[in-house]
Design a protein that fits this description.
The structure is a homodimer of 344-residue chains. Chain A is α/β, with parallel strands linked by helices. Chain A is 30% helix and 22% strand. Chain A has two domains: 201 residues, TIM Barrel, CATH 3.20.20.10; 122 residues, Lyase, Ornithine Decarboxylase, Chain A, domain 1. Chain A has a seven-stranded parallel beta sheet with strand order 3-4-5-6-7-8-9. In chain A, strands 1, 11, 14, 17, 18 and 19 form a six-stranded mixed beta sheet that branches. A two-stranded parallel ribbon of chain A has the order 2-10.
Chain lengths: 344, 344
């Protein structure tokens, strides 16, 4: 086994969904885009379906096709990029539900697939995807007459509960949708935590299912262990890795593990990041390579066959801080090359 | 089509290989690990085989298996992580050639697959993978008696031609291998450019095949175009994207394109990065999202259906600078979600 081991705890994922479902005052969907945030979407979606999710959200029609294959005809699969040029066959044949974000998309969908299911995506201030209030005003009656399965918007600042943008977007969403018959959705994980005013008819947790902030009570879902290829002893003054950037200050024992930035271990996190040899913290030495990382295991009395990158001792949020990014990116960077193992 | 478009110019890749082959005073292999540096290894390896490469190098046995499948029984496929525990069946059944880096690996290979092909990996100062001089001295006669297909090492500083480490590693490699009968290999792309003293019997270009530095004359191999999902007009003072970090200083036209950090467009590059609408430079506004990026296209007189991220106007090296990393990581981050199109 010469690849990193990515263990996905499906029971923890299911518990996270169930906990967010209990917090939701309405139906709870699941966001499974980007290969289920790196966990492997087919297993994720089957487990979430089994746990009760009946509405799945993905970014692209291609992702929707993969999920339909994995989970069968029953659940609704929503496409956040809507109905793009070239997507008609996939949407029609597989019964995917595009979340239409513009008049262009509405016309495309109604002309290409008359009578086919759709949802509407409204912009309430994030200015990313969705119809502006004026556009919506112009087409609202036409759209509602066609019976959208969902009318939704997305919060820009839900990870910051005190941000005034949250209340502004809530007010805008209510102004645009109060009184309509179609089911409404505004909240992803952060929005669920903002409380029931934000829940409407369907919530759409994503990051919280996979153990990431802002859901601080999420159970960790993934762990990553990197098998050691080789251990060597070097003397003080010797360098390790590309560019000779790390010089041993003492006689040292260096382990080289399989996995590097090609596996999504962002190169920039190298200087701040430790791995764990059992209970012992062991720092990365020198630059993260494409397929390997060298680690100073001098202080470990016992060296296991693999070192922990994510697990009991270190969370994805720690890696995110080390890489100056967010847990979401740590997860979605997890490459295909890992051996994925499912437990729970 | 709601995914980014990754176009791979196989003719350019073949020309890069042929140019590096002409520079090499010996046989030229090809490094195709990490999914052919993100280009899609199956098409890459078939084209490189057709162009003349007969020795392929990958990081993990699992990658070797995929390449054997793509290219058939003829070429030699070398595994840079050597013979790891659990790899015996794959190595034996598919005739992969592990580059053994330790006495442990030697014993594992000779016991599990007596008579099977192998190579030796020596450490000449990088302290990452390969036998130390003293270890090699101890087992050299035993190893050579088994007829290794290749004896190789790897340079730590080949991207910096003036670094004294290059000559030190060359001298160490010669001291460890002069006089042996087995073919020798020291140079990857950077080593090829250091000149014929570094070439020995086999060179192993990787990054240069895919258009990256340090091979400045490499032809660009990949281009990336991101389809526009939606265009909207906003007024001065409105914000765009997560956290409201970008505020329009003038009335602006904002395009949201499909693809984000889940596609390997490193989130950290956002504030420094532009895309291109035809010939017009158009800056990213606000934070890169998981599956989309918003772009200020106000200055574009003509807005094409997709914006260029990599191509005629912008190289992977520019993106690497913007993300405070190296072109290698830009390439290997290219996720599975792109629609890959092959030309040339």
């Amino acid at each position: 086994m010469s690849t990193g081991q990515l263990t996905v705890d499906l029971a923890a994922m299911a518990e996270n969904w169930a906990a967010l479902d209990r917090m939701s005052t309405c139906e709870t969907g699941a966001v499974v885009k980007a290969n289920g945030y790196g966990t492997g979407v087919e297993r994720a979606v089957r487990r979430l379906f089994q746990t009760g999710a009946r509405k799945f959200f993905v970014a692209a029609a291609e992702e929707g096709a993969q999920i339909r294959q994995a989970v069968g005809p029953e659940p609704e699969i929503y496409i956040l990029s809507g109905h793009m040029s070239g997507d008609t066959d996939m949407i029609g044949d597989l019964g995917l539900i595009p979340l239409l974000s513009s008049i262009d998309q509405m016309l495309r969908h109604f002309e290409a697939l008359p009578g086919a299911a759709f949802g509407m995506q409204l912009d309430t201030g994030m200015n990313r995807l969705g119809m502006e209030p004026a556009e919506w005003e112009a087409v609202r009656n036409l759209a509602l007459a066609q019976g959208p399965r969902l009318v939704m918007s997305h919060l820009a600042c839900a990870d910051e509960p005190d941000h005034p943008m949250n209340a502004q977007q809530l007010a805008a969403f209510k102004a645009m949708t109060d009184g309509i018959e179609a089911p409404r959705s505004l909240a992803a994980t952060g929005g669920i935590l903002l409380g029931k005013d934000y829940h409407f008819d369907v919530t759409r947790p994503g990051i919280g299912l996979y153990g990431g902030l802002p859901y601080i009570d999420a159970k960790p879902v993934i762990s990553i262990d990197l098998p050691i290829i080789q251990i060597r002893d070097i003397v003080a003054g010797e360098s390790v890795g590309y560019g000779n950037t790390w010089i041993a200050e003492r006689d040292s024992r260096i382990a080289t593990v399989a996995s590097g930035y090609a596996d999504g271990i962002l190169r920039i996190m190298g200087p701040n990041t430790q791995l764990f040899a059992g209970e012992t913290r062991v720092p990365i030495t020198g630059r993260i390579s494409m397929d390997s990382i060298s680690v100073d295991v001098t202080d470990a009395t016992d060296i296991p066959p693999a070192l922990e990158l994510v697990g009991r001792h270190q969370s994805i949020e720690t890696l995110a801080r080390n890489a100056n990014t967010i847990g979401y990116e740590i997860l979605t960077s997890l490459d295909a090359r890992y051996t994925r193992r499912y437990v729970g």
